[in-house]
Predict the structure.
Amino acid sequence: MPLPFSCEPADGAATRILFSTVNDIGHITPLVPYARRLRDLGYEVRVATSADEGAVAMLQKAGLAHAPFDRPAPKNCKPS
């Protein structure tokens, strides 16, 4: 089923889509079908999450590109 909108850039390059989430498997799992479908439609898709082994394994199994990032230091997570 085609998407209900067009994401084609003017220069003909592939459209890039970045999904970003925390590493909790409950946050990653719901994104996988959307990311795979967009990839299968020809979009360049990456999923940004921490380098947690479970997250990396799930994304590799789904054939999705992973863009790792570090978790913020605890001192940066305190309310101001």
